[in-house]
Amino acid sequence: MFFTPGTHKEQGLLYSPLKALISPRPIGWISSMSADGVANLSPYSFFNAIAELPPMVMFISAPDARTENKNGEKDSLANILETKEFGVNIVGMHQAEPMATSSQAVGADIDEFAHAGLEKKKAHKISVPLVDGAPAHLECTYYDHITLPDNGRGANSVMVMGHIVGIHIEEDIIIDGLIDVTRYQPVARLGYKDYANIRDVFAMSP
Ligand SMILES: Cc1cc2nc3c(=O)[nH]c(=O)nc-3n(C[C@H](O)[C@H](O)[C@H](O)COP(=O)(O)O)c2cc1C
Description:
14 strands; mainly beta; globular; binds flavin mononucleotide; Pnp Oxidase, Chain A; three-stranded antiparallel sheet
């Protein structure tokens, strides 16, 4: 099968296969805070580390479909552009459900930690709260953003990039000086409504 993006239905595919093909994707569980102090938490799977030195991450905010948000920005993006800080919380299998709950579209005035039944952990270098109980956290400061081309419907996704300025790791996921991901089983995003969790790890030498 070969086709041009956007013509998948003509091939008998129910949905765009892109997210199923480019998988598994890590989930950046992004915490942020509005200028008036409302905490926000949402998962982003168009997310990754983009450099080790300097340590940097990025995520992509798609246009917000909610009508009350006039400028089309999701709350995380609006908060980060305003306050220039965010947290990345690593999603372990034990927090898969609250992670999914935190993706629900709620008003910008709602504390999404409370909405998802989560407690806050204080960050060291940023004023944004982190998810208590997550196996690791990255404290980030805004670096820059890039507006992607028009999505064909008059709206744009935005790539947000940030510097990692602090790293928290729970002691019980460190074994002999190495991070053991099987201790928390990172949750990854596949296509459709599917997820995976990392349980089987193998090593290879080049
Ligand atoms: C696992 C998962 C991954 C997601 N990845 C993205 C993403 O990469 N970009 C995006 O714009 N929305 C993504 N979403 C949807 C957002 O989490 C959702 O729109 C959320 O309500 C945004 O909240 P906010 O307005 O508080 O930032 C994802 C949802 C889930 C459950």
